[in-house]
Amino acid sequence: MERRAGSPALTSKRSSSAPPPLQIGAAVEGRQDSRVLIPPTTRAPERPPSDLIWSLAGESMGTTWSVRLVPPMGSTQDAFQAAIDEELARIIALFSPWTPASEISRFNTAPAGTWKLSDDFWSLLNAALDLADDVNGAVDPTLGALVDLWGFGPPGPRDPLTPLPSAEEIEAALAVSGWQKLRLNRDAQAAVQAGGTKLDFSGIAKGHAVDRVSARLTAMGATSHLVEIGGELLGRGVKPDAQPWWVEIEAVPGSPAPHTVAALFDVAVATSGDWRRAFVHEDRLYPHTLDGSTGRPVDNGLAQVTVFDASAMRADAWATALMVLGPFDGPEFAEAMQIAAHFVERTPRGLVERMTPAFAAMMDEEEA
User: Fold this and answer.
1) What domains can be seen in the chain, in order of their start residue?
2) What value does the CA radius of gyration of the chain take, rounded to a whole number of Å?
3) At which positions is Mg(2+) bound (predicted)?
4) How many Å apart are CA 97 and CA 310, to the nearest integer?
5) Rounded to whole angstroms, how far apart are CA atoms 183 and 194?
6) I want to staple 65 with a disulfide (CB 3.0 to 4.6 A). Which of 36, 73, 83, 229 is the partner?
């Protein structure tokens, strides 16, 4: 959600190194103000195409979406609404396992064999496999069988009489999962269905959709806009008053941390949390983020990861991967990759935050 505030300019001073881990309650004791994040920019803002701001919204991909845009002169809101709806419907027709006729559903239910893929599907699958390779499977597009097994996929929640899958069921799902097992025929632009393999792009789908909608708006002349789908956001350009698109970053429920606001100027932000899409059994939380190395929901103490990146799809993927990597390997990997990431861990002392140098560099010098 956009936050209206008297915010600093994009050229504010930034810190250059990450602070040590901090207990959130202690870090903000006595503070009532907001933490302000200003991502670095490589270009000066262009003048928006008009002095208007239109707000559009709808539902898609099992969630809600919202767009704020500065329209070019002579355009209509109906045209932009139709274009956004069309773009999202196209993504669902390709990548939604909840839609029986979608391309991903057809592949997931196909018998063993080699199946040719559309250009867009092929492109996203390869991008997802490249990301999986970068993080050794911490984000993996082949975990659909495990997603279904744990009650987070199209079949719906598990039977209350058997709330957790057995070790044998998990092993069976792992046997048909794993990005390294998926064979591709690059000459034919095809993937091999080994029998029972299920693709799932939930780790990057919303981010990919945000990128696609943003590109569509830009092509229509709305070069200044803010796109949000299910909490993943991307801002382009500035508003007519020359302010960037200010947004408030979602916090862990019950966290005493200060409000965090960020200027989204040609940058995206994605958040992954253990409290989103989860179930509780015998006082234990089972989040929807799965660890492909174990076949089970992550259980490493991380409550939330927030990532900034030029691409919403990459931000979405990194946030998922860092949740899987955990509170120690995650920050180490993110720092090595120069990812702007913020981590919140649940500990016996309470919530503890860590941040990479790239994230700390976005903070006001006073905050850092």
Assistant:
1) 1-45+244-368 (3.10.520.10), 49-97+204-237 (3.10.520.10), 98-193 (1.10.3980.10)
2) 21
3) 203, 316, 320
4) 27
5) 9
6) 229
pTM over 0.85: yes
pLDDT at position 30: 41
Could you tell me how far CA 270 lies from the centroid of its own chain? 4
Structure tokens at 180: 């390294």
**Can you read off the two tokens belonging to residue 86?**
């069309």
pLDDT tens sequence across 107-131: 999 999 999 999 999 999 999 999 9
Q: Which two tokens stand for residue 154?
A: 């199209």
Q: How far apart are CA 356 and CA 341, in angstroms?
A: 6
Q: Is the dihedral of CA 327, 329, 332, 337 positive or negative?
A: negative
159 annotated ligand binder: no
Task: Find out whether 38 and 359 touch, Cβ atoms under 8 Å.
Answer: no
Two tokens, residue 57 = 């919204």
320 belongs to an annotated ligand binding site: yes
Structure tokens at 166: 């057995």
Length of the chain: 368
Instruction: Tell me which amino acid residue 208 is.
Output: H
Question: Could you say which DSSP state residue 179 is in?
Answer: G
Q: Please list, in sequence order, all residues whose beta carbon lies within 8 angstroms of the beta carbon of residue 274, skipping any fewer than 6 positions away.
A: 285, 287, 289, 298, 302, 303, 304, 323
